[in-house]
């Protein structure tokens, strides 16, 4: 209803993935700028994030949703989906196809699917089970509409993140926002101070080019 | 313009009024407030010596010490040294008033500040009365003029004197001038304290939010990186989405302030020892001039909101028998037990539990009955044999689990065990029973859940079960008993939803209808919003976790007991849902919040609602509902009882068939003889 939707989100981003892969931690790192142990998510949770002149709603879901009616609710009209898996647990990667592929049918047709490996701080390169190539491949498969020029320029929708070390988290979210609601360079400058919750102690992550992880 | 800042363990509210008219005339400089973030805030009314009530409030605070995790970021308890008497002083310098009620002890005066200083906590022993902090309230029109202000003191107060540091006092490093000096955070360690462990805190760099306002600039520049590290928290209240005050005592002095940013982050400040009312007055002023600025053309800030929730229910909203039942304590419980151990007059007992709850000291005795482990009419002897049988039964389940085939074990590990293992280590870890590294009770928690999944393969394990089990285990403190109580909780009460969608659907259907009948305005708002809103997303967690994450543990368990008592309805939890909406939902309708914001609204209230108030309201709603001569068919069965007592008048209203979707059969006509679903 327009009369009450005075602050309707311009973009709906959902995060999906197995239990305990770190979905809530990822969001909290981005929104709050902090890392802490999370309770298991039960029911729905969601956050607003301004992006330039836009409002973005980030929906957190339960990895182990008891009530299947909800999954479709989350996905309805989602403009982007973060498919999160634990880089140290291949099973959670397999789940992305198996569990969440079908759920995403309810999302927007052009829904951007971003594959995100979590807990990169715990990865031991020698023993890692899910390679960056595999993750990248899945990301490209899930987004057949992304043209090559864009991928060349902005990178594939695949990120390896660490909410603990604050690695690639902001980059990942901004990749999504910039893809779905592009801001001009001028807008970036104008809104930077307002939208960013970048930790001032960590000057490194501000501005500059987007660092790709793969 | 108003700012709120938290420096270490102190909250500083700085209000400055904008230049009006003359241009070169700074009309006023509002006031500034310093309040300690943490538990032991205490702003004392001038002229009133609160020496006695101080200890009363302190003891209520000690319950929080027992369950620090559940009272959110309030763990900064003050050292509890009852031997020290500190001063209570109040200094109001509004156009020159200084009041203090004098008690011996440290005293200081901070101009342009409303200040409360609390010594930084280390690890207070529970159940010790907390020290009452020193309190300063200073409001002044301008910093220069306040120097010439006159002082009015309360009858038994001593004149305000400039603060002299007292090394023996716990308040050894107060802030002399809150408005300007932010460079000396008192407690460098406090940012790592639990106040930041709650998931609704602002980021440490929240002052970025005030960047839009040039007048906030000076404050910002003064902040070094070290300030931030030490947990300085500062926001421009003018840029906030909402500021809400929740009183949780009837006198309206204690409670929480919840500040929500436009990014929907929340900061919650607790006032366990009073003083919130004083701060409210200051906020009220702020709220007024916030509206003034709105008129000047900042119409793009429609989110500002100043809400005060007072825990008041008029008598006609309450159940008529509301105050007749005290907590069920050991004596009362023993009264209901015959010599051979049978429980007599179960209905009366359940009614008492419904109204008064169970004394935590006898929960381990009472819960096994409420959770169907022991029948009420069992004798001591019967119970001994049940205990034996169930012990053997449990051991057998354990053996089954441990002797699974390798394939089955592999499956079990992948689908159950690894979820359970991830969940138990993050369940109620701040509860004393589960606290600390390598706590053996975590292993017990895990084993019970694994065994339950083996014995109930159709239920298995779903997230949230650990949340439900933890309090049961903490109450019984015994693995086998906890298992069977948990088992009763999961399978024999409809209060807990099983993972099946149809159970949740039924609950939500009832809830929607109950909302429609009892809170038509709220329901109408949801209806206008459409199907998404009618999904009642904001209630899902309430129902799935039985309000465990909505109220602090003490109150949540009282809600559980009121539900388990099954007095007059098996669906009391739905009345609790409606009560929450009734008390805290006005905003939703008034501001016409969209569906997702309704969820945000209620999740921001989690752990900050007044559980006792909600319970009272819920009991009142139940009474009201049962008085209705006519109910719609969609609510048929809500109050039909499986085992009503002989004194219960029963509930037999006229059932009216209303329109329900064509593909659905009328719940009444299809099944008029057995309205109660589920168990027994």
Characterise the protein shown here.
- The complex is a heterodimer of chains A (214) and B (680).
- In chain A, 33% of the residues lie in helices and 18% in strands.
- Chain A is of the alpha/beta class.
- Chain A has a single domain, classed as Rossmann fold (3-Layer(aba) Sandwich), CATH 3.40.50.300.
- Chain A has a six-stranded mixed sheet, with helices on both faces.
- The termini of chain A are far apart.
- A six-stranded mixed sheet of chain B has the order 5-4-3-2-1-6, with no helix packed on it. Chain B has a four-stranded mixed sheet with strand order 9-8-7-10, with helices on one face. A two-stranded parallel sheet of chain B has the order 11-12.
- The longest helix of chain B has 23 residues, at 380-402.
- Classes of the chains: A alpha/beta (214), B alpha/beta (680).
- The interface between A and B is large, with 51 and 58 residues.
- Chain A: This is Ras-related protein Rab-1B.
- Chain A: One of its GO terms (molecular function) is GTPase activity.
- Chain A: Keywords: Nucleotide-binding.
- Chain A: Belongs to the small GTPase superfamily. Rab family.
- Chain B: Keywords: GTPase activation.
CATH superfamily of chain A: P-loop containing nucleotide triphosphate hydrolases
Silhouette of chain A:
globular
> How many β-strand runs of chain B?
12
Number of helical stretches of at least 4 residues of chain A = 7
Class per helix and strand makeup of chain A: alpha/beta
Low-pLDDT segments of chain B: 15-201, 203-223, 291-303, 674-680
Strand content range of chain B? 5-15%
- Tell me the strand order in the biggest sheet of chain A: 2-3-1-4-5-6
Provide mean pLDDT of chain B, rounded. 68
- Classify the beta-strand content of chain A into a percent band: 15-25%
How many angstroms does the end-to-end distance of chain B come to? 61 Å
Q: Main interface pair?
A: A-B, 51 and 58 residues
SSE ordering of chain A: EHEEHEHEHHEHH
What is the CATH topology of chain A? Rossmann fold
InterPro entries (chain A): P-loop_NTPase (IPR027417), Small_GTP-bd (IPR005225), Small_GTPase (IPR001806)
Protein name (chain A): Ras-related protein Rab-1B
Organism (chain A): Elysia marginata
Keywords (chain A): Nucleotide-binding
């Amino acid at each position: 209803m327009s009369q009450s939707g005075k602050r309707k989100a311009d973009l709906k981003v959902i995060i999906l993935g197995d239990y305990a892969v770190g979905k809530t931690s990822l969001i909290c790192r981005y929104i709050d700028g902090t890392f802490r142990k999370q309770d298991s998510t039960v029911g729905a949770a969601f956050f607003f994030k301004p992006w330039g002149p836009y409002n973005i709603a980030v929906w957190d879901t339960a990895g182990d949703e008891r009530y299947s009616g909800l999954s479709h609710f989350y996905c309805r009209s989602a403009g982007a989906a973060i498919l999160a898996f634990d880089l140290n647990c291949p099973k959670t990667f397999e789940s992305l196809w198996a569990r969440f592929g079908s759920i995403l049918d309810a999302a927007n047709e052009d829904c951007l699917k971003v594959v995100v490996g979590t807990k990169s701080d715990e990865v031991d390169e020698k023993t890692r089970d899910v390679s960056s190539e595999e993750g990248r491949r899945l990301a490209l498969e899930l987004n057949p509409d992304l043209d090559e020029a864009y991928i060349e320029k902005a990178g594939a929708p695949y990120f390896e993140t660490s909410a603990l070390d604050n690695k690639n988290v902001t980059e990942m979210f901004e990749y999504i926002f910039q893809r779905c609601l592009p801001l001009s360079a001028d807008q970036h400058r104008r809104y930077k101070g307002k939208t960013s919750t970048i930790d001032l102690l960590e000057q490194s992550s501000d501005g500059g080019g987007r660092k790709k992880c793969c | 313009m108003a700012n709120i800042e938290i420096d270490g363990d102190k909250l500083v509210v700085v209000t400055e009024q904008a230049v009006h008219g003359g241009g070169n005339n700074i009309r006023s400089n509002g006031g500034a407030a310093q309040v300690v973030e943490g538990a032991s805030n205490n702003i004392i009314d001038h002229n009133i010596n609160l020496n006695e009530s101080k200890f009363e409030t302190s003891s209520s605070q000690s319950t929080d010490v027992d369950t620090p995790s559940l009272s959110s970021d309030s763990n900064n308890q003050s050292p509890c040294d009852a031997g020290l008497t500190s001063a209570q002083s109040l200094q109001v310098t509004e156009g020159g008033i200084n009041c203090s009620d004098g008690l011996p002890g440290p005293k200081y005066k901070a101009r342009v500040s409303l200040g409360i200083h609390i010594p930084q906590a280390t690890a207070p022993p529970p159940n010790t009365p907390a020290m009452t902090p020193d309190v300063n309230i200073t409001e002044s029109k301008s910093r220069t003029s306040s120097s010439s202000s006159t002082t009015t003191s309360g009858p038994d107060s001593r004149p305000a004197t400039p603060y002299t540091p007292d090394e023996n006092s716990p308040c050894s490093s107060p802030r002399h001038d809150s408005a300007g000096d932010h460079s000396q955070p008192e407690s460098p360690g406090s940012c790592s304290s639990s106040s930041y462990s709650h998931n609704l805190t602002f980021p440490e760099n929240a002052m970025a939010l005030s960047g839009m306002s040039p007048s906030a600039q000076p404050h910002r520049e003064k902040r070094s990186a070290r300030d931030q590290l030490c947990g300085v928290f500062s926001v421009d209240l003018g840029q906030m989405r909402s500021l809400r005050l929740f009183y949780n005592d009837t006198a309206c002095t204690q409670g929480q302030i919840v500040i929500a940013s436009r990014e929907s982050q929340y900061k919650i400040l607790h006032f366990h020892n009073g003083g919130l009312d004083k701060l409210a007055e200051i906020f009220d002023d702020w709220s007024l001039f916030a509206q003034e600025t709105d008129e000047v053309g900042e119409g793009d800030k429609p989110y500002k909101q100043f809400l005060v929730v007072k825990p008041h229910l008029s008598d006609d909203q309450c159940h008529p028998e509301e105050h007749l039942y005290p907590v069920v304590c050991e004596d009362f419980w023993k009264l209901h037990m015959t010599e051979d151990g049978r429980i007599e007059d179960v209905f009366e007992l359940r009614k008492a539990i419904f109204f008064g709850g169970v004394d935590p000291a006898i929960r381990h005795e009472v819960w096994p009955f409420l959770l169907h482990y022991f029948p009420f009419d069992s004798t001591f002897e019967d119970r001994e044999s049940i205990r034996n049988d169930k012990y053997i039964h449990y051991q057998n389940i354990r053996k089954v689990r441990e002797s699974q085939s390798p394939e089955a074990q592999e499956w079990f590990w992948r689908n159950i065990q690894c979820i359970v293992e991830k969940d138990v280590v993050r369940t109620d870890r701040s509860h004393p029973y589960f606290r600390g590294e390598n706590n053996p009770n975590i292993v017990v928690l895990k084993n019970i859940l694994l065994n339950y999944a083996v014995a109930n393969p159709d239920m298995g394990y779903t997230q949230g079960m650990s949340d439900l089990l933890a309090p049961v285990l903490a109450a019984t403190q015994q693995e086998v008993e906890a298992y069977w109580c948990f088992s009763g909780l999961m399978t024999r009460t409809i209060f807990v939803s099983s993972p099946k969608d149809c159970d949740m659907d039924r609950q939500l259907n009832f809830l929607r209808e109950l909302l429609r009948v009892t809170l038509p305005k709220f329901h109408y708002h949801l209806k206008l919003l459409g199907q998404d809103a009618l999904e009642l997303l904001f209630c899902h967690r309430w129902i799935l976790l039985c309000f465990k994450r909505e109220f602090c543990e003490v109150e949540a368990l009282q809600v559980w007991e009121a539900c388990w008592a099954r007095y007059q309805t098996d669906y009391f939890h739905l009345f609790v849902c409606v009560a929450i909406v009734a008390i805290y939902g006005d905003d939703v309708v008034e501001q016409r919040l969209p569906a997702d914001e309704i969820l945000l609204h209620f999740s921001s209230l989690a752990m900050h609602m007044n559980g006792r108030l909600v319970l009272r309201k819920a009991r009142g709603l139940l009474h009201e509902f049962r008085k209705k001569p006519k109910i719609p068919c969609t609510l048929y069965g809500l109050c039909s009882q499986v085992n009503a007592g002989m004194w219960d008048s029963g509930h037999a209203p006229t059932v009216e068939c209303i329109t329900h979707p064509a593909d659905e059969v009328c719940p009444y006509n299809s099944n008029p003889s057995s309205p109660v679903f589920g168990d027994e």
